[in-house]
Design a protein that fits this description.
The protein is mostly beta strands and about 160 residues long. Helix content is about 10%, strand content about 35%. It contains 2 helices and 6 strands, in the order ββββαββα. The protein has a 6-stranded mixed β-sheet. A hairpin with a 6-residue loop joins β3 and β4. It is globular, with a radius of gyration of 24 Å.
């Protein structure tokens, strides 16, 4: 039987991503996100380190700022190292393969550009759409459905 090691975690970034370059010239970006377990008095928050490599690390590290809501998927590993005093340490880490970041327009920098591009778009042609006056009785469902009338389809 084959084992699959994939973890997906969503949360607010604890601190801005730090981009480092190894002596070999490889980019490594690291940041942390919380993972909560339990609830009420038994709720516990553990911080997971996340690491990205290569071009992904270089390009996305500037967008990963404290408080940003992100969802990461990747391989779960336990990093082990020895402190200078000889103490063995372990840290849960996600080697990020995929990341979902907040939309670019939420930063405020791109909003004027988005509004300008919307203003240049021509209005939608209403003649290409079927009429949306469904005042006639629909025999397949009651008229008081919780979804818009145009979402009702008849076969």
């Amino acid at each position: 039987m084959m084992a699959i090691n994939v973890i997906t975690v969503s949360g607010n970034v604890g601190k801005d991503a730090v981009l480092r370059v190894t002596p070999n010239g490889k980019n490594i970006s690291s940041f942390s996100i919380p993972a909560k377990t339990g609830f009420g008095e038994n709720e516990k928050t553990s911080w997971l380190n996340c690491k990205m490599f290569g071009a992904m690390a270089e390009k996305l590290s500037v967008a990963i700022v404290k408080g940003a809501k992100v969802t990461v998927s990747g391989e779960f590993v336990i990093e082990e190292w020895t402190k200078q005093d000889g103490t063995q340490m372990q840290t849960p880490t996600i080697l990020v393969r995929d990341i979902d970041l907040p939309p670019r327009g939420t930063s405020g920098n791109d909003q004027p550009r988005q509004q300008q591009s919307r203003a240049q778009q021509p209005p939608a042609n209403q003649n290409n759409e079927p009429p949306m006056n469904f005042d006639d009785e629909i025999p397949f469902a009651p008229v008081t459905l919780p979804f818009p009338r145009h979402a009702i389809h008849a076969i």
